[in-house]
Amino acid sequence: MCLAIPMQILEIDRFDARCEARGIERRISLFLIQHEELSPGDMVMVHGGYAMQKMTAEEASSAWELYDQILAEEPAG
Fold first, then answer.
1. Residues 58, 14, 30, 18: is their CA dihedral positive or negative?
2. Which CATH number fits domain 5-73: 2.40.110.10, 3.30.1330.50, 3.40.50.300, 2.30.30.140?
3. 9-29: per-residue pLDDT in tens?
4. pTM for this prediction
């Protein structure tokens, strides 16, 4: 199963961006969504170091709520 993570763009340098999610920062490629109008503060869905799509803050929040529910139900190992 593949999992994409919502991240917020902090800064953009051509086809690369510095993004953050829950205190973790990563350099992300914007190459796959270069047709989108993107700016710092925008949310993107990230998988494997690539932004896959632009999303709203509400969509990102809903995704994190679902991920938190999944983790809460995961048995302690």
1. negative
2. 2.30.30.140
3. 999 999 999 999 999 999 999
4. 0.88
